Structure formats: structure tokens, C-alpha cells
Structures
1.
Amino acid sequence: MQTFTLHNPLDMHLHLREGDLLKAVLPFSATPFSAAVVMPNLSTPLSTPALALAYQAQITALAPHFKPLVALYLNEELSKESLQSAKEQGLFLLKLYPKNATTNSAQGVSDILSPKMLEILDIAQDLGFILCVHAESVGFVLEREFEFHPVIHTLAKTFNKLTIILEHMSDRRSVALLEQYPNLYATLTLHHLTLNLDALAGGMLSPHLFCKPLLKTPKDQVTLLELALKAHKKVCFGSDSAPHLLATKHTCTCAAGVFSAPLLLSGLCTLFEKHNALEHLQDFISTNAVRIYRLTDLPAKTITLQRTPPNLPNALLDGQLIIPHFMPLEWSVLK
Ligand code: NCD
Ligand code: ZN
């Protein structure tokens, strides 16, 4: 049987939620991945170091061999002292949510380039934080990432010593920004590499493929896929796996988020093999991120996959959480 081995896989954009949902989804990430950047958009956003550290400790208690890198929810109340204390206690990521851009972002930043915000970002730069950005405007849904470019230009120029991550890059026009700014990088999701808007809305509507940023055109998809397949030095893997219960997915309105955690390694292996690029998967899923985020002390994990379709459940939590099987899976993780 053909096998393939990965060392220390990393997911640089992950939503783990709270309570029973956290307990149900965590093993899919914590078992095969060494570490993940865990997003702070909980129902009470992780807007203080104390909240972020408590959440980090809670995850570590549930999964001792997995390193959760919890991002602090950027907000105007963060003082120099609190950022310093956060850094001393091991937090090093800030997540910028433009107000109302996505799930639980009502307390996001309303004026990103306000004097107060610029002052906070200046301190963050001096302290060596990394800024993760949900890079979308609140304009027309397919143009949101593009419309956000002026903000990225300003941030990347003004804070040229600050590492900035354009999260879940979805628009091919963003690639030029990566080329332009040495301090700008991007995460790429599995669903934006394998799907386009047709999967969501081309036939019957697929609520489980509705996410922010929205899936885009085939040209966008192909351009992002090219970056991933060659493990371009400015990109790394960040799944944006974002579970929502059926109660918020299957109603008149549908929460944004694709719950991809259960299929990530199988899916990436299948995708990279299909394009004869398996040799670059290690860089895409680990090495690039170690360099970009300057990661040390990762729990060592060696994950072997074999070339046989996995046996994934269709749902969890008594059917309340659907696992969308959105792509063919030809590899499975060996237990
Ligand atoms: C995420 C969520 O549900 O928390 N949703 C999504 O569609 N990606 C938030 C986010 O990353 O935008
Ligand atoms: Zn996200």
C-alpha cells in the first residue's frame, strides 16, 4: 500500500468554538496537527490577554499534545501594558476583524486606520506581534477582498516591520500584494483551493459551503491553487474550518463557515497527488508557516497517510453538526 508521511502539520487558521462543540471538533485537529492558530471570535470575543490565555489553557487541558496558538481579538481597549503582558505570557498573534465582516465580529474594528488603532499597531510592531487580518470590506460580496486592498497597502507600508497575514486569500488580484510587500503573507484554505462559487450556488444551494470570504470564480481558484501546489514562500495552509450547528446553518439565514477539519489531511494529500505536487505538501502545510510565524517548540508529530479512501462520519453531535464531503478523498490518515 502506497503511503505518504508528513511532519508537524500546522493549521494556521482554525475555529474551535466552545463547550460541547469544542469537545466534538477538537480531536480532528489536535490528533493529526502539531499546532494551529486558533481564532478568537467566540460569542464573547477573546479581547483581553486573560480571556485568550484561559481559552488556550482550556484547549491544552483537553489536548495536551497539541499547541493552540490563540490569537488576541484586536480592539481599541488594548493598552501598551496589556500587549506587553500578553507577549510575556506567550501570546503573539493579533486578529483584526473589520466590524461586522463575519461571524462574531460585531465588536470588530470600525475604523482600522484611526489614530488609536495606528498607535496600537505601532506598539504591536515594536513588541513583535504578528497581525492576522480578515481582509474584507463590507461592500459588494464578491469584491470585498479587492476593496480592502487600500487598507492592506497602508498597513503594510506604515508597519513595514510588522508581519501581516492576509487570512483565507480568495481573490486572484491579492497575489500582487504578496509580491509587493516583503512583510505580507497569506493563508489558503482547502475549500478555496478546490471549489468555486458554482459549488455553493451553481446548482442546489449548499449551505455547508457558504463562508466568508465567499468562494469565487474558477480563475481565482486556479490562481490560488497554483500558489499552494508550488508552496509559494509567501503562503501557508490555514483551513478556516468553522463549524456551525444545523440550527444556524439550516434556517432562513445561514451562518458562514465551512467545517473542513475532518477532511483536511486526506483532502490536501488527494489534491497535491492529483497535481503531481506531493513533494511540496510538507512546505505548504508546515515548513513555510514555521518560517513565517517564527515558530519554535512544536509538539513533534509524524503523520502517515495511506492511499485508501477514509471512512469519515457524515455528522457529529447527534446529527447537529454535518461534515460536508466536498471533494473526493483518496488518502486516509493511519491511526
Ligand atoms: C468564520 C466563523 O464562522 O467563525 N466563518 C467563515 O465563514 N469563515 C469566521 C471567519 O473566519 O470569517
Ligand atoms: Zn476564520
2.
Amino acid sequence: MSEPTPSYTGPQRVFSGVQPTGALHLGNYLGALKKFVALQHTHDCIFCVVDLHAITVPQDPKMLASNTRKITAAFLAAGLDPERAVLFVQSAVRAHSELAWIFNCSARMGWLERMTQFKDKAGQDKERASVGLFAYPVLQAADILAYKATHVPVGEDQKQHLELSRDIAERFNRDYDAPGFFPLPDPLIKGPGARVMSLKDGTKKMSKSDPSDLSRINLEDDADTIARKIKKARTDPEPLPESIDGLKGRDGAANLVGIYAALAGTTDQAVLDEYAGKGFGIFKPALAELTVNAITPIGEELARLNADPGHIDKVLADGAKRARAIADPIIEDVRRTIGFWGS
Ligand code: AQP
């Protein structure tokens, strides 16, 4: 019988990132930011604005710089404390690109060909998609493992990519005879809000790139806009059911119940216990009030921070320094393990 492979024994660390590809929405908030803010009190956390990921599709250079500051502002407005967690921009730390190349040589074509996000984003014309879009999950593995992060809070949409990060870590450890060198990172995808759907189509995830602004609630929306979008959200004429089973096949209704539960910090069933038998004429205004109370203070703080780019730049410069101090020695170890000259 073979010996069991020794597993990683280093410290626990959380890593996650958000792309600077446009204004953040309620899905990004509930699936990511809100969870990051809670984790900073219990874990060693590193959060990143992933601009290298953003350029896998064309970006306007001026917009990219301004979106990078805006996403940083959204982290801060949501309650992230840059003294507690490390907050920085991906391209400011070279370790990400270097490790991504090394991992390109560990990842297998067949693994990447199974990734559904590439299929969705490349659409019909995959011959014309960038190589970067195809290799996107390899860079994601490098982001996480450059810090030997053990836990990755993400929305449900990123689950498949996280599994690939584990495959890459395992393959590297085996190929270089370095058992336990990299941890196999665990996804943290629990709780309501892990998959917020479009307000116009309950079968599609809420997304920054959806052409319809009515499909999402942006963190920058004012109270009237939020209330109007919820009022117009696609639902059905039936009242809310008594149990979760009764939400089957009612995607729009299920989505609004899920949003309510995530914002109120409760469960879908607890929401149904309160609203069973009531129609959307009652439920939507209650949801609108809850959403306005949670989101508008963030929007106001966001506007204040967006007017102070000097402060954002200081936070990012400090974060990059702290991120390099963690990643650089890990990359040096990787270089030595591979046998690169000079290491
Ligand atoms: N609808 C969602 N529900 C729950 N979580 C979500 N996330 C995104 N959409 C939802 C989570 O937000 C984090 C940051 O995502 P991202 O901006 O890096 O990229 P994304 O997943 O590609 O987000 P979008 O809005 O769908 O952007 P576009 O339209 O540009 O592709 C991640 O943790 C993600 O899981």
C-alpha cells in the first residue's frame, strides 16, 4: 500500500478577487463583498482587484484605471478595513503573472476545455476569443496559490474554477515531487446570496455585463431606482408558498425570496414563514425597503470615496507592498523547486 500524500500544514489564509469591469451589483455584494467583510474579523484575508483578468476581453485603458479605483472604493464602502485585510491591484504584484505561466505548464488542455464560463463568455465565436480568456482559471489558481491561500469565498459561478485550482495545486505538488507544497484551496460558497439571479430572468445570474440595467441593482442606485427595479422584477401572479418546494419552477419568485433572506441574514424558509400566502404587491415593497436600507448607505460612502482618488491610491500602494511581502518568498521557493537558475 502506498503512503498517504502529506498535505499542506501552513497557515490558513483567505483570498478572493473582483474584476474591474464595471459598477458592482447586488450579486457581487451578497455573493462576495458582504462575505469578505465578515471574514476579515475571523481570518487572515487578502483581497484583490483583478485587472489582469479584466483584459481577457478588450478594455478601454482610461476606463480600466478608473474602474480599478471604483472597485477598491466599493470594497471600502462595503466595510473592508485595509489595515486588517490586504487590499491591492493584481497587476501591481508580478507574482501573479509569473506563477500563472508556471501553472500553464501544469494545467491540462482537457481540464480547461471543460470550463463552462469560457464557453459562455466566448459564445459562438470561440476561435476569436483571446488565449487569456481560455487560460483565465489558470491565472485564478496563481492568484490564490501565490499566497498559499487555503480558503476562497466566491459566488456559486466560480465553483468550477476553484476545483481546477485544486487540480493544478495537486499536479504541481506531484510533478515536482513536493508533497504539501501548495494547499488545495477550499471554496467558501455557503449561505443565501451565493447565486443572485437577474431581476428580468430568474434563470440567468445577475451580471455587470447584462445589457439591461433593469436586470440588476447597482450599489450606486438611489432609493427610487432600487424600488422601481424591484417593482418591475419579473415574477408570477401566485402568492408566496409555505415551503421551499413550492418555489420550484418559480425562478423569479425564488430569486426575490433568496435576496430577502441574504439581506436580512436569515433563511429562505424563514422568509416564507413570514410571507406565505401574501402576493408580490406586499412582498416587493418590503423587499425594496430592506434593499434600500442595506444598499444606499454603501452607495453614499462610495460616492464620497470616489471623490478622493488620492486616498484610494494610498490604500492600493500600501496593499501592494504587503501583498509582495507575502508572495515574493513563495515565488522564490517555487523557482527553487522547479530548478530555475539563480534560485
Ligand atoms: N449573480 C451573482 N450572485 C452571487 N455572486 C456573484 N458574483 C458575481 N455575480 C454574482 C461574485 O462576485 C465576485 C466578483 O465577480 P467578478 O466581478 O470578478 O466577476 P463575475 O463573476 O464575472 O461578475 P459579473 O457581474 O458576472 O461580471 P461580468 O458580467 O463582467 O462577467 C465573484 O466572487 C463572483 O462569484
